[in-house]
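Let us work through a complete example step by step.
Step 1: write down the sequence.
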Amino acid sequence: MIRGVCGPLPAYSWVHPFPFLTLIHYNRPFMPQFRIHRMKDLPRQHFRWAPHVSGAANIKPKDYEPSDEVQADNEYAAWALLRNSERPLNVGDLLELPSGQLRICKYVGFEEARSIVPEPAVPVNAVETMPPVSAEMPQTVQA
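Step 2: predict the structure and record it as tokens.
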């Protein structure tokens, strides 16, 4: 008998209906696979000295190069796994979830990031080929 707060507790043994499942960690099959994008050196220097802004960070895909992948419970677990490796996560590096969501490593932790794609430049010739605007007023129809 086990002694409880209000008296003895009945001793019973519970047998798991599927004992092989006790060997499997319940989160292991569901851990996301993070894709790592490393920031290039020159943009990293600008990023390190830029002031911290709240909200989602706007990133340019050209400033990053794809790297390896890591499987972890969350971005902080991924950072802890890679902390003592040959290539740890540095400030400015991105983690991409399988859903496509981006998380950027900052001094204060991980924050949401959005990829900005520049709009295509309008060619100078396109402005010249536009039809001229008519200065005439349209005729009104009177009944």
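Step 3: interpret the result. Residues 31-115 form one domain.
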